[in-house]
Amino acid sequence: MMKKIRSLRKTLAVLVAVLATTYAGSVQAKENITILGGPVGGGWYMIASGMAEIIQAKYPELVVRVVPGGGLVNPPRVGTGDADFALTLTVNTEMAKKGGDPYEEAYGDIRSVVWGFNTTVYQVVAREEVPLNTFDEIAEKKFAAKLATPGMQTMGGWTVKKLFGVYDVSIDDIKDWGGAHYQGSHSRSGDLLRDGQANILMTLLPLPAPNILEVSNVRKLKFLPMSEKLINTMVEQYGYGRGTIPVDAYKGSIEIDKPIPALTIASGLIANANVSDEVVYKVTKALLENSERVQKIHRSMKTFVPEEIVKAKNRGTIELHPGAKKYFDEAGLNYN
């Protein structure tokens, strides 16, 4: 009898040890990762949140936390390891990797994961009563614009300075003309335009911009196109892309008679070089193998098609992370 009891105890001890080991292993398998999006209320934050859901559904062991960020701050935060992944833009990511305006140092640990999420478009809209027909007229007429823009620490805000800089105009000059400048989140910019504290909104977002859409439901808005000369200068000096705002971009909300020339930047996902190959592989695989779900996150993501992504020519020169390369090679996608 005692032998049976001792035998049973040994069996129970083994089972407890196995269960404990299994439990410990499952706990250890959980890995926390962060993805930087954009300001709350903007397209990037929505896209990052949608990506997190897709990744966690495919790989429950990855616990994904979405953190607000911005175009300018995301590359350095990934480069220093403060965040694992981030949505970003080609123009400033190239600057951050090499070092150069607006960055004071180079961040060599930035790696590409995948480009081609969407194309962000610089958009300038005004309340209907604003007596301007083009963006350039703000500087040319020294108009007392009440601007609502992204924060100056974002790519959208940095672009504001560069656009007016082409005309040797600063934000302080606009204030001296009787204007004002409000900066902050995309949702706050929309609120300011809607309530009349601002009369012009400038933003760098995929089409259609959520804050512009929201305001256009209750206020009559119009686009202020940039001149070809201004666009050419920004393309040549800073590496922006050239595109258009289609007539149906805000169908039913803002009337657009013909395509509007605009500045564009390609967006994508980057990672710190020290994020494990396995994690980057899983993130890449989850997104590419669920491309139809990715496309539904936001209207601007409809171009996220694996076969088209690998053909894109506007993804810059940032080195591909080995984990991402492993997936592309395995899937037979020539991402060179």
How is this structure best summarized?
With 336 residues, this protein is α/β, with parallel strands linked by helices. It contains 14 helices and 10 strands.
Give descriptors for this structure.
336 residues, alpha/beta, D-Maltodextrin-Binding Protein, domain 2, 2 domains, ten-stranded mixed sheet, 10 strands, globular
Count of discrete alpha- or pi-helical segments spanning 4 or more residues:
14
Distance between the termini: 71 Å
Number of strands: 10
For CATH, the homologous superfamily of the largest domain is named as Periplasmic binding protein-like II
CATH architecture of the largest domain: 3-Layer(aba) Sandwich
Q: Could you say what the CATH topology of the largest domain is called?
A: D-Maltodextrin-Binding Protein, domain 2
The amount of beta strand, in percent, is 15-25%
Largest sheet: 10 strands, mixed
Number of domains: 2
Mean pLDDT: 90
Order of helices and strands: HEHEHEHEHEHHEHEHEHEEHHHH
What is the CATH level 1 assignment of the largest domain? Answer: Alpha Beta
Choose one word for the global shape: globular
